[in-house]
Amino acid sequence: VATIAYIALGSNLGDRKAILDGAIAALRESPGVAGLAVSSLHETDPVGGPAGQGRYLNAAAAVETTLDPLQLLTLLHSIEARFGRVRSARWGERTLDLDLLLFGDQIIATPELSVPHPSLTARRFVLEPLCEIAPNAVDPRTERKIADLLASLDLPGSQPDR
Ligand code: A4P
Ligand code: MG
């Protein structure tokens, strides 16, 4: 059974564009994964972490996969390791961060994996790229569409944590 999954990509160290392009290519070439769509690359100010770290490039990708959620997470970790050559002692900085945002309409809460990603609804740097490729995808926890979640970040009184 194939499931549509959404993945967030972020990089703020090294050749960020080459790293994101390489990660997307690696994802599409992986057995059990077919690429469906990729957002544009968004340059964003770092949220959290120490002052003085570089800006991020963020993107989102949609894939169709026959892997199960933990197999997909393991694949994301292996791609992170492949591109994670530049090291930094500073918390938060990384050459490549891959987060599993949505896996079909599944809700998963285990020590290894939380899906939907816990920060999905609060992070503009995640929702903006995701909205480009999947405005009508639904967050199964809030049962709201990605476009609505993004619009909510602009409402007075909303308090995005990051
Ligand atoms: N894990 C559980 N659920 C998931 C999931 N849905 N997707 C586990 C991916 N991983 C998941 O991940 C640690 C562990 O979480 C994984 O091994 C997996 O088993 P991690 O990415 O190494 O660390 P973290 O817990 O995500 O904390 P981290 O990376 O220090 O910080 P954040 O919260 O991920 O934020 N600003 C901008 N503008 N753009 C960014 O991309 N990113 C961060 C990192 C901060 N600020 C940013 C950006
Ligand atoms: Mg992560």
Commentary on this structure:
The protein has 162 residues and is of the alpha+beta class. Helices cover 28% and strands 27% of the residues. The chain has four helices and nine strands; from the N terminus they run E-H-E-E-E-H-E-E-E-H-E-E-H. The strands form three sheets. Strands 1, 2, 3, 4 and 5 form a five-stranded antiparallel β-sheet that branches. The protein has a two-stranded antiparallel ribbon with strand order 6-7. A hairpin with a 4-residue loop joins strand 6 and strand 7. Helix 1 (16-29) runs antiparallel to helix 2 and helix 3 runs antiparallel to helix 4. The longest helix is centred in the middle third of the chain and has 15 residues, at 69-83. The chain is globular, with a radius of gyration of 15 Å. The model has no long low-confidence stretch (mean pLDDT 92). Bound molecules: 6-(adenosine tetraphosphate-methyl)-7,8-dihydropterin (A4P) and magnesium ion (MG). The site of magnesium ion has 2 residues, from strand 5.
Query: What composes the largest sheet?
Result: 5 strands, antiparallel
Count of DSSP H/I helices: 4
Determine the mean pLDDT: 92
Task: Extract low-pLDDT stretches.
Answer: none
Q: What is the element string, with H for helices and E for strands?
A: EHEEEHEEEHEEH
Name the hetero compounds present: 6-(adenosine tetraphosphate-methyl)-7,8-dihydropterin, magnesium ion
What percentage of residues falls in helices of 4 or more residues?
Answer: 25-40%
- Number of DSSP strands? 9
Strand content: 25-35%
Q: What general outline do the C-alpha atoms trace? A: globular
Please report the distance between the alpha carbons of the first and last residues. Answer: 35 Å
- The gyration radius over C-alpha positions equals 15 Å
Q: Which structural class matches the secondary elements? A: alpha+beta
